[in-house]
Amino acid sequence: MNYEVALDAMRVTGSDFFCGLTIPVGTNFCSLIVGGWGGSLLGISSLDSMDASENETTKFMNFEQDRWYRVRLRVTAARIEAWIDKEKLVDVVTTGKRISVRPGDIELSRPFGLSAWQTTAALREIRMRPVSGPADPPKTALGTSP
């Protein structure tokens, strides 16, 4: 708990996820999926037995081939947050949720791992650091929280 992982990821060839970042959350594990389900899905697998394509973290965006994306994932006691480049796309409260990895090959990535599915991926600048809590809320022009 209370850590952040950041890396650059790129889809080189293929059409599915190019960054499956599997991480521990307390005594459980889950994965941030970037570019899944034919190339455009982003989300957490799994929350309450629902994978990245069917829970509240599901997002769709165009991921270009041969382009680096900055992926950042933060895990704290009650929250998972994730960014692509500078855009926060996942912000989910995990209290009371069942956290797990999707059954199958992705289980081999536990406790911490990176994977791709039917895709060749490039990864660089992989870093991990401790954090003290969720990311700060955005500041307004006057420097106060909204």
Please give a structural write-up.
The protein is mostly beta strands. It has a single domain (3-130), classed as Jelly Rolls (Sandwich), CATH 2.60.120. It is built from no helices and 10 strands. It has strands at 3-14, 19-25, 28-36, 41-45, 59-60, 69-76, 79-84, 87-93, 113-115, 119-130. The strands form 2 sheets. The chain has a 5-stranded antiparallel sheet, with no helix packed on it. Strands 5-4-3-2-9 form a 5-stranded antiparallel sheet, with no helix packed on it. Strand 6 and strand 7 form a beta hairpin. The radius of gyration is 15 Å and the shape is globular. Residues 140-146 have low confidence and may be disordered.
Could you give a short description of this structure?
This protein has 146 residues and is an all-beta fold.
What are the salient characteristics of this protein?
146 residues; 10 strands; disordered C terminus; mainly beta; globular; Jelly Rolls
Output the CATH topology: Jelly Rolls
| Main β sheet profile | 5 strands, antiparallel
Rg over CA atoms: 15 Å
Q: Estimate the strand proportion.
A: over 45%
Order of helices and strands: EEEEEEEEEE
Main CATH class: Mainly Beta
Estimated structural class: mainly beta
**Percentage of helical residues?**
under 10%
Question: Uncertain runs with pLDDT below 50, 5 residues or more?
Answer: 140-146
> What is the count of DSSP helices, taking H or I runs of 4+ residues?
0
Distance between the termini: 27 Å
Q: Count the strands? A: 10
CATH architecture title: Sandwich
The total tally of domains equals 1
What would you call the shape? globular
Which whole number gives the mean pLDDT? Answer: 92
Q: How would you name the oligomeric state of the polypeptide chains in this document?
A: single chain
